[in-house]
Amino acid sequence: MFRQINVRNLLALAFGVVLAVLVLEVAGRVLPIRMGFGESLSYLRFHPVLGTEVDPTVGQIDYKNNCVDIKSIAINSAGMRSARDYSLLPDPTGTRIALLGDSFMMGREVSDGEEAAAVIERRLTNGEVLNFGVPGYGSIQSLYTYDLKVRDYAPDIVVLAFLEVNDVEDDSDTITAAAGWGSLRPVFDANGELMTPDPAAWGLNQNQSFTNNLHRSLRRYSYTYYVIDQLLIKRIARRLRLRGDAAQLANSYAGYWWAKDQGLLHAGVYESTPDPVWAQAWSDTELAIERLNQLVTSDGRQFVVMLLPSVGSSYSASLPQRYKDVMGEELPASIDLNYPRNRLRAFTKAEGIEFLDLNESFAMYMQMHQTRMPHFYYMCDGHFSPVGHYVTGLSLLDFLLRKGWLSPASVANPEQYETDSYMQ
């Protein structure tokens, strides 16, 4: 009898667990409570010079995080974000524009047709916009993307989209090491020579083991496992990592306030008197832009650096409180949110490089439409929303027309760009 009761209880318990899991799985897919369940599997692969690149064999990707659920992002056979392939030889009667940058330029957080490249291309009567944006890219990677890939397509215009909040740190092995990303990107050595990525870092970064691949698959397809991972597994793993890594990090970067907390790492770019680490990062970034400009202009192409704002994004908006929480004091006066903008403007002017500051365009759009920040960003993610891409695309188009790099005949309704009515 005792054994029968035990078996009966175990069966009832098993049935209850299965029922609870089924209810949770259904609820996680029906109710708006998923908070990142189903995050995308990697669509990047290792590149011996660039570190990573979009895998051109994937065809399309889906991307999901706490903010967005993008069902399909088209990737062409060259690894660009596009539903179509482009011939190497451009149409001699049209204009070909190449866009370089990171996830902001790729538009990973918006659906096909909403990214800045598509916004521009729809308005060209005879032209193409090639989107070479790759998540995580810095200026050094953009330099070699142009050299290894973009040149083959002979664009008329090359645009480097520069994200002020993290493109400088992406060119520093020291800062990315502090972030725990390893040596998975090219950097310059002390003599300005290229140091290619460490292939071993790719395996460490991706952790391509059976158990980790199983963990990722379960996290992607099982809401129950996702909840357990969020509530329990992540916390345990974080505590285990902190025992060794945090102490080592504190010793390695002692004296640098930006290394005291992962949430402060980006903020070093706003330091108006950069410490030696950030000073070197700025120097390498500017060297990459200078070399990119030399390559593009030597090919007979037009080149412009387009500054993507972060002022008003979730990161800059929360920085004062984050700094206070970590450091126990108010944000110092030396932290200037306009420092990257002003420095890049001065650098491009000194080098004779065209510069487009989207801060001005965003401010104009806000004034015309009486909107408030963060209309251009997802607050829970920080990337551009469709509105951010829309304003970026139209602003770049207006700039190219004003510079005479595009003829009025190549743009639909060019008269609207003679005033500010294109922002309406």
Structure explained in plain terms:
The chain is α/β, with parallel strands linked by helices and 424 residues long. Helices cover 44% and strands 12% of the residues. The protein is built from 13 helices and eleven strands. The chain has helices at 2-30, 103-106, 116-122, 139-148, 173-178, 199-206, 210-221, 223-252, 276-298, 314-327, 339-351, 358-369, 386-403, and strands at residues 44-47, 51-54, 60-64, 69-74, 95-100, 127-131, 157-163, 187-188, 194-195, 302-308, 354-357. It has a five-stranded parallel beta sheet with strand order 6-5-7-10-11, sandwiched between helices. A hairpin with a 4-residue loop joins strand 3 and strand 4 (69-74). Helix 7 crosses helix 8 (223-252) and helix 12 crosses helix 13 (386-403). Mean pLDDT is 82; it is low at 32-41 and 233-250.
> Segments where pLDDT lies below 50 for 5+ residues?
32-41, 233-250
What is the number of strand segments? 11
Strand order of the largest sheet: 6-5-7-10-11
Q: Encode the helix/strand succession as letters.
A: HEEEEEHHEHEHEEHHHHEHHEHH
Radius of gyration: 24 Å
Distance between the termini: 79 Å
Q: How much strand? A: 5-15%
Mean pLDDT: 82
Helix content: 40-55%
Biggest sheet: strands, sense, closure?
5 strands, parallel
**Number of helical regions:** 13
| Structural class by helix and strand composition | alpha/beta
Q: Tell the overall outline.
A: globular
